Fold this protein.
Amino acid sequence: MYTLYRFFRNLIRSIASQAEPWQVGIGTFLGTLLGFMPIWPLSHGPCPLGLCVLFVALIVNCHLGSVLLFMALCKGLALTLTGPELMIGERFTSLAQRSADVPFLYLSLWSHTGYLGKTLLGFACAPLFAILMHVATVQFRTRLMAKLLERRRLMSAGKVANKAWMVRIACWFFGL
Amino acid sequence: MSDPATPSVPPTPPVDAATAPAAAMSEPPKKRPGLIRWKLLIVLVVLVAAIVLVVPLALDPYIAGKLAGALKDRGLALAPGATLHVSLLGGRIHGENLKLFAMDGDKVTTQEAAAATRLDGDIALMDSWREWDVILDEVVIEGMSGSLRRRADGTPPIGAPDDKSGTDWSKVDWAKWYQKAMDQYKQYADKKKQEQEEQKKKREEEEKKPPDQRQKVPDHPYEADPDWPKATKYKPLRRDGRTSSRVLIRHLSISGGNVGLPDESPFDITSFSLEGHDVALDQDLGEKMTLAGKIETKGAGPVTLDLDRTQDNGGLGSFALSAAKVPLAALNDPRIAGPEYAQYGATGDASVSLKNAWTGWDLSGGLDSVITGLNLKPTAEAGAQAQQVATYVNQLKGQPIAWPVKLGGTLYSPTITDSGVKQVLSGSALDAAKNLVGDKAQQEATKVIDQQGAKNPEVKSAVDKAKSLFPKK
């Protein structure tokens, strides 16, 4: 529960941070990809595609908090979705077979229907999550954050007194 | 978490009207975040550079340890003064003063098994990665020397000393080794050909189908993943029926000095050089392998050889070997030329020129040799027929004899289809007789040969038995 709480708080703080929404969006995109695609499975060795995405996530000026958060979140999600992932992978057997002849994709486990399903699911979810996070960040900053800050300013000036503890908790939670 | 930046839609908390202009004046405009984390990139580059610098310090001793273990299993040890450096990123291997000593149990002896003053290898990493093969751009070995002498128990020096195969190595001859190796190669090539034909058949069947019913991707071999049993892991399609990766050397250059052959003979090498291009046992379609060598021997004169081969499965190829002065006595060891030849105890010199070519497995060509000073001295066990042949040949008193031999059969089982012995005995002997006794003697010799050959079954038998001078397969 505490871990979930930390995840949720990190998510909110990334929204409320000084990072630009596009940085949060790209961080979410790359983090989701890293969460679903294999990076270094112990039984198969290093996957060049996963390592390339990790390198890009480190080099591109995206929000690293979002990367780590969504990576961890999606790793857990990928573990629970092994059945659908395999189903997706089996639907793309021709892609898996073609990938077996391309060394880069073969080593990235695209010829493995299970990992291929994971990767494809990651590619499907990543833009979706990225857009959602971008929109959520913009909405939070333009609407909720301004209201919270205004409320706190009024409270400190003694003009508003009701539900002060709620505002304080919200500000602490969002890191404002 | 990320480089700080002004949010695109910054929060705008209300401020007092009096302080607003002042605040606006004092706050400098924030920089927009860049796309790349340059500082982190520099740190990563420095980190990678540091790893590249440090890795050889750990890698070289590791490789040296592994190599020492592998050599020890073969009864060999690398001399302490040798340097061997491997560059993983560059795909290079460089060695200097490499010397291998034979081991007696766990003790390193002073017997030098092999040596090279310089070894350079360059792996084509990207090509190897793309082709799933081990492709070496260049292999250069300089100052190579060594000994392939059999051990005391007759075993060859390459391989574990405690060979438990039950083979009596002291009785193994190299012709049989060649045939055994070729048999194994043919089995592999036949299997490969079968795979190629199956693939071709499948392709043709697919081409007959209407375009919308054709299989878009050929069936790949696959295996199950023990960690994920329901998933399928496809493996790369076998290229041209190949079942495993191959080794291709684009440029091979080896030169050196003394190399002792398994059995001491005048054929022991005193210096040699070998140049090759696209050297591979398992060739791709259209690849042409060339090998050219020059060898100086201890007592058999200089030998040159040229080989080229296109394609696999026999393929198209040619092989030429010439040796200006081969002492026939050197061939009298049954392990070198076989017992059938050895029983004649031949002496003299032969200028040998071997040229053959093959298409598929079929071999054609010839061995042209001019033998001078031929004298036969059969062993007591050789039999009466060999003695008769010797008597006849020795009458020629060592005059030059042209001895053409036609080669045929297959690569894995070469045969001498027409030895040309009759021509030798009636033609070359005639020439020899000319030199010896003039025209009259020539007529007499011709007459004698013709008459004896036609009437006397013993002479005819002797002529026939002379064919066995060259070993038949």
In short: Chain A has a mean pLDDT of 87. Chain A touches chain B through 47 residues (CB under 8 Å). The radius of gyration of chain A is 20 Å. Chain A has nine helices and no strands.
